[in-house]
Amino acid sequence: MPTITGKQYIERIDKLKTEVWLDGERVIGNISEHPAFKGVMKSQAALYDLQHDDSLKEFMTYPSPSTGELVGMSYFQPKTKKDLVKRREMIQQWAKSTNGLMGRSPDYMNTTLMALASSSELLRGKKNCFPEHLLAFYEYAREHDLSMTHTFIDPQVNRTQFYFEKNSEPIVAKIVERNAEGIVVKGAKLLATQGGITDEILVLSAGGILDEESGFAFSIPSNSKGLKFICRESFVGGDSVFNYPLSSRFEEMDSIVVFDNVLVPWERVFYYDNSAVANSFQITSSFQAFALHQVVSRQIVKTEFILGIAESIINTINISEYKHVQEKVAEIIVGLETMKALVIKSEVEGKLDEWGVMRPDSITLLVGINIFPRIYPRFTEIIQLLGASGLMTVPTEHAFQSSIRKELDQYLQSRGENAEDRVKLFRLAWDLTMSPFGTRQTLYERFFFGDPIRLSSQLYQSYNKEPYVERVKGIVEAFSLK
Amino acid sequence: MPTITGKQYIERIDKLKTEVWLDGERVIGNISEHPAFKGVMKSQAALYDLQHDDSLKEFMTYPSPSTGELVGMSYFQPKTKKDLVKRREMIQQWAKSTNGLMGRSPDYMNTTLMALASSSELLRGKKNCFPEHLLAFYEYAREHDLSMTHTFIDPQVNRTQFYFEKNSEPIVAKIVERNAEGIVVKGAKLLATQGGITDEILVLSAGGILDEESGFAFSIPSNSKGLKFICRESFVGGDSVFNYPLSSRFEEMDSIVVFDNVLVPWERVFYYDNSAVANSFQITSSFQAFALHQVVSRQIVKTEFILGIAESIINTINISEYKHVQEKVAEIIVGLETMKALVIKSEVEGKLDEWGVMRPDSITLLVGINIFPRIYPRFTEIIQLLGASGLMTVPTEHAFQSSIRKELDQYLQSRGENAEDRVKLFRLAWDLTMSPFGTRQTLYERFFFGDPIRLSSQLYQSYNKEPYVERVKGIVEAFSLK
Amino acid sequence: MPTITGKQYIERIDKLKTEVWLDGERVIGNISEHPAFKGVMKSQAALYDLQHDDSLKEFMTYPSPSTGELVGMSYFQPKTKKDLVKRREMIQQWAKSTNGLMGRSPDYMNTTLMALASSSELLRGKKNCFPEHLLAFYEYAREHDLSMTHTFIDPQVNRTQFYFEKNSEPIVAKIVERNAEGIVVKGAKLLATQGGITDEILVLSAGGILDEESGFAFSIPSNSKGLKFICRESFVGGDSVFNYPLSSRFEEMDSIVVFDNVLVPWERVFYYDNSAVANSFQITSSFQAFALHQVVSRQIVKTEFILGIAESIINTINISEYKHVQEKVAEIIVGLETMKALVIKSEVEGKLDEWGVMRPDSITLLVGINIFPRIYPRFTEIIQLLGASGLMTVPTEHAFQSSIRKELDQYLQSRGENAEDRVKLFRLAWDLTMSPFGTRQTLYERFFFGDPIRLSSQLYQSYNKEPYVERVKGIVEAFSLK
Amino acid sequence: MPTITGKQYIERIDKLKTEVWLDGERVIGNISEHPAFKGVMKSQAALYDLQHDDSLKEFMTYPSPSTGELVGMSYFQPKTKKDLVKRREMIQQWAKSTNGLMGRSPDYMNTTLMALASSSELLRGKKNCFPEHLLAFYEYAREHDLSMTHTFIDPQVNRTQFYFEKNSEPIVAKIVERNAEGIVVKGAKLLATQGGITDEILVLSAGGILDEESGFAFSIPSNSKGLKFICRESFVGGDSVFNYPLSSRFEEMDSIVVFDNVLVPWERVFYYDNSAVANSFQITSSFQAFALHQVVSRQIVKTEFILGIAESIINTINISEYKHVQEKVAEIIVGLETMKALVIKSEVEGKLDEWGVMRPDSITLLVGINIFPRIYPRFTEIIQLLGASGLMTVPTEHAFQSSIRKELDQYLQSRGENAEDRVKLFRLAWDLTMSPFGTRQTLYERFFFGDPIRLSSQLYQSYNKEPYVERVKGIVEAFSLK
């Protein structure tokens, strides 16, 4: 089976009848018709359809190594630096469809799975590890073009440094039984984005665990028995694309994932009861390199979108002559070019790992992910500083369809735009930076790869500073008074 | 007639039947029952009721100089430094009821009017100026405890430096006729906050005008013929105080004010056709000193609220031991204490003006208003950095009332709080910093007194730097080589 | 004996023949004639002379409670809020003579000693504590107008969190013997500013000590046997006031203080072998309140100096029209007014302590000292950004006295100044921000009251956040779904 | 003649007897023996010697297209992207010798001249332009391995926007005569770094000139008649490498360049009396692309040096466990990797210009030069924040050679280093960030390519924002209500 179409994606998800709770009610009927999900599922479907677009097939697909049929490029294991560029082009092609607003477009999880599978040999021969399950699942996912999400963060109960949960009833998801069929999991994990609208969910321990039992990784269908997705409030503002140009299309939803004694069959367990592997696999595998390559590539497209909006506002109200305006946009340009440069460097400095996979340079990408959580919020601030009162004068679609329209046309016109286009532009800026959808996007980017402080620390610790310390040592020790 | 009650406020506004447009429809019936306005009107009513609270009367009222009846302290003309402290206590008493979230609580406009009236002598003898109209209106407002809003910003059509509107049909509101009854105004002004839910609207030219005709100031009832308020989308999230603890109560609304050949009777015209007065009156009158004294006093209470939320989050998830957490809260404390110190300094350094009114030091307050637009957005960012994933796991009231509650109780509990209180806290934080209501608050504070760049410039230009330049000159010229 | 004159100060110090080492040589002869010390001693002498200036006597002195003779106001124990203002005026009078560049002008240590003595009752009845010694020394110092320095930081050997020195030979100064005459101290303390040019040195344990033996406080004459001051390189650029307008006059010198089995006689021991007292006395005494009141008052004058230089540069090269220039100076103004406001608030909110001393509000001043280490370096950066190439074209006094002068006069003239005055101004700016003297000033302000991170932490921990947490609790608990 | 040796460089400069004024005296005798110049000339000589190092010849030289002899790689005109990498390796090889501290190492000017010459066709056929002079001079310089400096900034007399000099006696250098032999120049230019210790000086108009007469470019020998270099004060701290490890070796000196009716022979005039060419040539030629490629490559090495020093301090006093320390070093790492990535991107995106020269992408490098002036000063601040009191306890070489050494050895030891090495390290840090040499380095990087505000503006204006505006337009115009 080749890449799926958008229609296939929607039908498959609808058929699952996954247990999804929203605003105190279980979603019934086709989830693709539910107001909170229909927009984003349609956008996701459009991404799948791009794989069938003749002009893009070359970028978006490649022949399956098992069947020769065309499968998604996001599953592709790169062997050369050029392959890395191909992967980036695929990622950015998809990102352009959403302006980078879907953090969990299918390429994210497909890349993640490809990366883990590419390093499955690291699991070989280790206690309670099943590299062959991981490989088989990768192949299965690739050949069926599965949609997936994942979850690994533990519930935010107590964030003190040496906290260790002692509840009799688990809060954090853990293995409560191992039997002939598989492992049984009970408890919760935080935040599956797109939880409930994907075929599968990949579940991983968070890093830094101390107890053997918490070390596991597996994937299960979203409609597994006992699995529940409890959603936050929906941030879809409404159906109107005029009013809510972004949230009506790209609101991915986040949910708490509850495991109510969920059985994970053995063939879907990648490892369990092994804290050493759980703590090291995400770091030593190519997961970080490839996940960050996808993320940074997407964030570039999102930054382009920010730049486009900033400059459009400037044109509309004619403020490009001000040095402080120019300086603000220059900040965005600097951010954009920096992110672009880092991706390129990661590719130029890519290295073959011991299994022949070309990994982009992970440290370089780690720099990118240290930068973006700091600049993206600043960019949303710049949009607000440029838009000013224009972001307060945002009447709705209905207003433009009413008898008050002539006043709107007269008083909301601008140098660059008629009133309607101007309001559409400002609503777009508002939806990106000030709506619940927009602020959730900001929060998402702030914490995408973890707490910014932790990311700094990780960068410090993983960076090779020795050559520079040596250079200084050379100077200091060049002469001695004794 | 003494201070009004909340009930009287609501009845009076309902009776006006002001022309208010929202989402393409004219508001009909009692505006106080409209979903977009009922919350804020109730909160405003509660403020008026505080003036009748026996334990607060002493702070909130004073005997009218004309009738001896108790009128609102916000109308009080201070004569001593102690009077300034009394005014501050009144402002902060009201602000505590709303945690500083109502930028247009009645004291703001009452203060503004008091300040303008106190300097009415500046209009004496000038062309087309009517100081006696201004005084009479101040007295009338004080004795009837009028609610008011104001508007002065021009539509954001073209913000280039030397733009001059040349439309045949006016966009910016201007005087199109002067006749026996008064002046006739046509065009629009931007942003009347609370537009439509006050008795009156005070209309002033923006500063820096070039043509004589644009220089005017007047006040008219909200239901004046031809006057229309066109609202932006409402940011009330819903009626549920659980879900929308702030927007359900404090969303003040902003509207475009359209003047469709509105007649302003002469007795309500304070000045007209006088650009020199229009450009100078706001600066030379005590307007800036008193308006900023009110604003900064309110912003202090808002900052206290931010601090309370930050520390509550910290307690809830137990993160107070982290230096970077402490540093972030220390930032808020520094901001809070700075604002408090500036208000105190403005009072300690207050000076009697030539009409015997004790003005707080205006420059000191200008410093405050230069600081707040920079720190308030940062504080909302700190809330997000502390709250992290807690701001994404925010199920709704209904969820807590459904069968899924037991899962929520288990998985959303925290060290410091049960799940319900914890979610309420995080929804509060979300509504303050991430909801459309919250982001509009941020935008409001960013631009409260104008563009931040312009405020820097104003501070630079109005600050007396000479003594310090002289000190340096003394050093440089102390000796000479020649 | 009343306040001393500058001449008396110099004679007294010269007579001590303190053991001071500089650049590998022991200072011999009169230290007041040594190139590294003559400038600063002359400036210090001028401060003492101010106490005899008839027009200032009223501000600078008060009648001794023991003799009625005029003693230095810096020793004055305030009883009222007005007294706090008097103290501030004295501090700022002295600071204006040095533009705030002498961090250890005599008022700093006099204030410190006054504050410790005012709280001496805290030592009463505690193990190894001698409040009467402290009081007697305070009186002695006041009546003899002693000059003093102090030292408490330990050598920077290993700054890890749980480091505990285990050397057989002490590095950190400690008590190695207690005998009939007193205690014997061996080891070193870091950084006595003005070490070697004061009558006395006050020695205190650093905070946070763990072992009983390290808890002590005493004062001894600078020429005590076995006491050595090892100076860093001198940052006096040279004698020329043209070339080095600041370092030639205000370079205070820092030195390592070595205790080579120094005997401290009992009457000079304030406490010893008491870690509890050592850790708490600096916090519970009025030390922090008064020391910070002195420091912030001085920093205000220094900020005025910065403002004067910034504006002088702007005038000289005529750049005041640029918004980005205005914004930079506005930053300085904001800093200056903030510091001024904080001092005023600390006085307005002063409180009598249990011994009848009026303490300025310590938390408010702690805010000041959290702010200054962040803004002062920024201000020096602003000077550099404004001065630009002007800070590179700084020929010397000799150049102006040579045949090349006519070229300098022609090519270094500016709109606002002739070449000579312009170069003097830029050299002044350079000496404040770019010379070794200037950068040491910056480092000094960065760390004046300890590491900035530690100061944030201290502010967080000592600030009363409860009222605001309660306010939030009130909202969260106002309603419950159960 | 092939690349020169260090010895040849020194002899050639000594022979010139250029008119250099320092501290009011003309430098006489061999300038290479003068205390202010000997260190830097020795370092420069060492750079020339590297071209003769057998192991480096391949990187540092290439066969002259005219003679086949080996000439300096800095003169090399790249034709491929690989050539760009070769150029970078040469630049960074040299930079490593000086840790990037010599902004005017020979490759800078050689690169500049190569770039201008590569675009000489832009001058072809234009009024008063002599492309053949430029080409001939390039060839001459390459074949003789000339050392050069340049100057283009005008004296800082009046920086208001619309200032136009009206002095009868020129301040800004201008052409005062054109005769048979050449043009005669009178007036001054600001800041020739290394002025007086190079063979030649290239003189160019600053950008944005308005009058035809100010448009010129030429090169003349440093000892041309009437040419004077007036130096600022020397920032060489002294000969001791222990005390002044950097200023004793790398202080390049800046000087004002005075033209006292200097005759420039026609064969050295590249263009004159042509403001259009003067304003456009620096932008349209490959000057910016190649100059920035050199600069950013050097700044990378300098940032590595900063990183080495920061980490060495951390190791020495054992503070690597602190999150805030890690965060500060992570900032440096982010800066370093960003600069590295931008250079790589500029090479990957290089393009052949119409004359077959491979230009690195200029916009990408412009981003780099927008970043560095902001991060470098911050890095020097980080060094100070890490070093803290260690930067105050810096005794001199003599102190370590005196009887006080045993105390220094005991009290200045650190976990990581003995006292001597520790002091050497901290003196290195001090010389880089706090000495006059160090602060001049900071100022130099702040303004290397002009005022930071102007650089932002240039980036904004030259960046192609259209594709992103179009993308937004696509969204806004996708549907219309009418």
From TrEMBL, chains A, B, C, D:
Q: Which residues bind FAD?
A: 156-159, 193, 451-454
Entry's EC annotation: 1.14.14.9
GO BP, one example?
phenylacetate catabolic process
Origin superkingdom:
Bacteria
Q: Which is an annotated GO molecular function term of this record?
A: oxidoreductase activity, acting on the CH-CH group of donors
The UniProt keyword set, sorted, is:
FAD, Flavoprotein, Monooxygenase, Oxidoreductase
Residue limits of the HpaB/PvcC/4-BUDH N-terminal domain? 5-270
Which Gene3D superfamilies is this protein grouped with? 4-hydroxybutyryl-coa dehydratase, domain 1 (1.10.3140.10), Butyryl-CoA Dehydrogenase, subunit A, domain 2 (2.40.110.10), Butyryl-CoA Dehydrogenase, subunit A, domain 3 (1.20.140.10)
Task: State the InterPro entries in the record.
Answer: Acyl-CoA_Oxase/DH_mid-dom_sf, AcylCo_DH-like_C, AcylCoA_DH/oxidase_NM_dom_sf, HpaB/PvcC/4-BUDH, HpaB/PvcC/4-BUDH_C, HpaB/PvcC/4-BUDH_N, HpaB_Deino-type
Residue span(s) of domain HpaB/PvcC/4-BUDH C-terminal: 279-476
Mention any Pfam family matching this sequence.
HpaB
> NCBIfam families attached here?
HpaB-1
Its name, as the record gives it, is 4-hydroxyphenylacetate 3-monooxygenase, oxygenase component
- Organism, by scientific name, is Psychrobacillus lasiicapitis
Q: What is the lineage of its organism?
A: Bacteria, Bacillati, Bacillota, Bacilli, Bacillales
Gene designation per UniProt:
hpaB
